[in-house]
């Protein structure tokens, strides 16, 4: 494991969906770990869930704010501004909202995927060290459906796969932002999510029977929570965790395409190269003489000839050695801003 273990003692944690089946059990463990503040954002107030957490919360660190993740970016910004005003800063964001009712396409996509994207980007802006923040940790709860899509739940699987890919992309910016991102993929877990589940492609289906028939017995939310907290404390950037049948496993996600910088971490690489966008570095290299001196700018014919030669050379290389002449990609990525700043 590359990262240092993170202690939860004294941390300010925002848990979205903290009143759900997995949320309550995880929240109980978080307060047991001595967090300074646990701010639960949930669509609805849930007295019995709050009381369960309160029983183990001897220091009264748990607070609640009503929030619907489908409310959009402006509402999300506004609630996070209120949280930061209240707590001072956010150390850890847990994206734990998810629904499995596929028949309303828009709702499942805006809850599971857009909701996670909005809250992540807003929290990101507060945490980002390059914008004056203190860094932080963002953990998103996806599903094993992000690792192996469920035939009967194609839209749910797509939203969870989207969370996984979104998280892996942003994790590459950690050297600049100081924000660690990871995804946790629980297997089937005994919560009320199972009673509300419906599929966009099948009329009637016994979901629990389906899970059991495939030998995926349901784990308890308490077992799942222990492993979620373990994964959060391990604090490994870009990690994908599978948390199924009471076990926690780090999943290796392979990259099948080699991006222009060759490493898949363009911004990080650009930063190491003194903030020069990775695409333009490749361009400059081709314009230098062997002794390293910059030669005169070529005219248009020379430029085209050079480009053709480079393309031929690139095509002759085995795929992993290829370096593309992409002038704008690095710059675009460096200038990447969340729409929050606009
Ligand atoms: N239970 C499982 O088998 C299972 C398996 C894999 C992944 N997951 C994922 O784990 C997470 C938690 O699942 P769970 O089983 O505890 O679900 P749950 O239904 O018990 O809890 C979900 C919580 O989210 C809240 N919520 C729903 N819509 C909301 C919205 N629009 N805005 C704010 N809050 C909203 C609900 O009020 C509830 O408190 C979800 O992302 C789910 O997809 C669950």
Automatic annotation (TrEMBL):
It catalyses: a secondary alcohol + NAD(+) = a ketone + NADH + H(+); a primary alcohol + NAD(+) = an aldehyde + NADH + H(+). Residues 272-342 are annotated as: Disordered. Its EC number is 1.1.1.1. It comes from the Eukaryota. Keywords: Membrane, NAD, Oxidoreductase, Transmembrane, Transmembrane helix. One of its GO terms (cellular component) is cytoplasm. The keyword Ligase does not apply. PROSITE patterns: ADH_SHORT. The chain crosses the membrane at residues 136-156. GO terms for biological process: alcohol metabolic process. It holds the Pfam family adh_short. One of its GO terms (molecular function) is alcohol dehydrogenase (NAD+) activity. It is an enzyme of class 1 (oxidoreductase). Residues 282-300 have a biased composition (Basic and acidic residues). PANTHER family: 15-HYDROXYPROSTAGLANDIN DEHYDROGENASE [NAD(+)], ALCOHOL DEHYDROGENASE-RELATED. Homodimer. Belongs to the short-chain dehydrogenases/reductases (SDR) family. This is Alcohol dehydrogenase. It comes from Ceratitis capitata (Mediterranean fruit fly). The gene is ADH.
């Amino acid at each position: 494991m590359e990262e240092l273990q993170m202690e939860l003692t004294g941390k300010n944690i925002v848990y979205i969906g903290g009143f759900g089946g997995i949320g309550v059990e995880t929240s109980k463990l978080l307060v047991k770990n001595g967090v300074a503040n646990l701010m639960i954002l949930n669509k609805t107030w849930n007295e019995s869930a709050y009381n369960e957490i309160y029983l183990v919360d001897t220091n009264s660190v748990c607070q609640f704010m009503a929030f619907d993740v489908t409310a959009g970016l402006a509402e999300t910004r506004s609630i996070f501004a209120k949280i930061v005003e209240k707590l001072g800063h956010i150390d850890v964001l847990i994206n734990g909202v998810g629904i499995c009712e596929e028949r309303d396409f828009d709702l499942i996509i805006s809850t599971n995927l857009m909701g996670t994207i909005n809250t992540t980007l807003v929290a990101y802006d507060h945490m980002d060290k390059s914008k004056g923040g203190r860094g932080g940790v963002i953990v998103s709860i996806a599903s094993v459906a992000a690792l192996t899509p469920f035939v009967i739940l194609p839209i749910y699987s797509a939203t969870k796969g989207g969370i996984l890919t979104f998280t892996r992309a942003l994790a590459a910016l950690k050297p600049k932002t100081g924000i660690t991102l990871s995804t946790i993929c629980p297997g089937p877990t005994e919560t009320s999510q199972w009673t509300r589940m419906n599929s966009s492609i099948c009329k009637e289906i016994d979901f629990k029977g389906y899970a059991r028939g495939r030998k995926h017995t349901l784990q308890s939310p308490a077992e799942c929570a222990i492993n979620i907290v373990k994964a959060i404390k391990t604090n490994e950037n870009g990690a994908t965790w599978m948390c199924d049948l009471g076990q926690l496993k780090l999943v290796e996600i392979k990259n099948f395409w080699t991006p222009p910088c060759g490493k898949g971490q363009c911004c990080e690489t650009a930063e190491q190269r003194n903030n020069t966008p990775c695409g333009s570095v490749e361009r400059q290299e081709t314009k230098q003489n062997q002794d390293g001196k910059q030669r005169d700018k070529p005219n248009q014919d020379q430029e085209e000839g050079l480009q053709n030669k480079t393309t031929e050379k690139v095509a002759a290389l085995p795929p992993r050695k290829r370096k593309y002449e992409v002038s704008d990609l690095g710059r675009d990525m460096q200038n990447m801003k969340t729409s929050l700043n606009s």
